[in-house]
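Thread: Newbie trying to understand structure tokens

Hi all, I'm a second-year student working on a class project, and my supervisor (Dr. K.) asked me to get a predicted structure for one chain before our next meeting. I've only ever worked with sequences, so writing a 3D structure as a token string is new to me. If someone could post the tokens and maybe explain what I'm looking at, I'd be very grateful. Here's the chain:
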Amino acid sequence: MAASTKSSSSPISVSTETLPESRVKVSCEVSWPEVKARMDDAAGRLGRTMRAPGFRPGKVPPAMVIQRYGYEAVLDEAVRGSIGGWYGEALAAASVHAIGEPDLELGDLPAQGEPLSFSFTIGVRPEATLGDVSKISVERREPTADSDLVDEQIERMRSQLGRLETVERAAEDGDFVVIDFTGYTGEGDAREAFEGGEGRDHLLELGGGRFIPGFEEQLIGLSAGDEKTVAVTFPESYPAAPHLEAQPAEFEVLVHEVKARQLPELDDDFASEAGGFDTLAELREDIEKSILAQDETRVQQEFEEAVLDAVVEQATVEVPQSLAEARARELWENMLHQLSHRGLTKEAYLQMSGQTEDELLAQATPDAEKSLRREAVLAAFVAAENIEPSDGDILDALQGPAAQQGVKPEKLRK
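---
Reply by user tm_fold:
Sure, no problem. This is what the structure looks like when written as tokens:
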């Protein structure tokens, strides 16, 4: 089935053809005025360094640049610089919910005065056939403020307000020690200190998991002034120093001080310092309210997801494996984009995970398929019930998918 679309204000006309396995082919035609405008832009870029008698650098007319470089060369430059934008416009004009990367086909470059043609094939959101939802029943639990969670929050606040004080005893799990250390690899004459393995007056929490596995445990029982050789093996994956991965090492350690965290008493003075409350009872009540409000939000989300999953269970949705894999790939690429802003490369992430890219994509595919089923059912339900949600409703509904894909809800709204 094919359908054509052309906006009076758009320089691109499109026709869509539905293909098997939730794919469509979009055939596009870019008007000659648009092609000519993009050629002039390309000629402007090419002409920045071109010199011609009577013209300043960068001021050579597009027609002269085209004459110098040739029509096809300038047209090729224009297409390379514009195809991404044309693809986006065509996607919007076709009103398809694209999934994955397109298979783009560019036709022969047009003669002067003729439109440019290209097409692409891409996966789209699958269609859903709703089942009988009239008898669906989903339980909703009551929100609670568990007293254990209140106690945990108070203990975290005590820990934050705690003070480290030097103690005259052997170090225990949870204590802090001030140490000098030097790390060595190799044995005998080959034993040598390695780069980055030395520290002075370093404050280390025993049991905090900051150092190599097995290091902190061996300092328990030491007192100020004690020295010890700590033998460890670096993890098989150690991005901070790949050359040390799986290598045995020894650290010469000198303990300067043992410090213990002194926690404040659980009284009204603590409540005042921790949150500005007059009494400890008021602080507990405030924490309970906060935990209850968080759980109310969680209950609502759980309920909405349970209702949606119940509707999905009654619906018929065919999700081709290739489509689920394409969505998994989208989620993976979005995550990598987020990680890049934190300075983490794909290679470093793979090394930390201890898995290959293919393994991670395979793990993500079932969740990607579930996401597609939900989206298809939601779209079918909205259409069946003639629901016209407000912008706020749409953005709220897109919060979950947006977070999953690493983009803002407004982007999915478009």
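A couple of things are worth pointing out once you decode it. The radius of gyration is 32 Å. The longest helix spans residues 280-314. Feel free to ask follow-ups in this thread.
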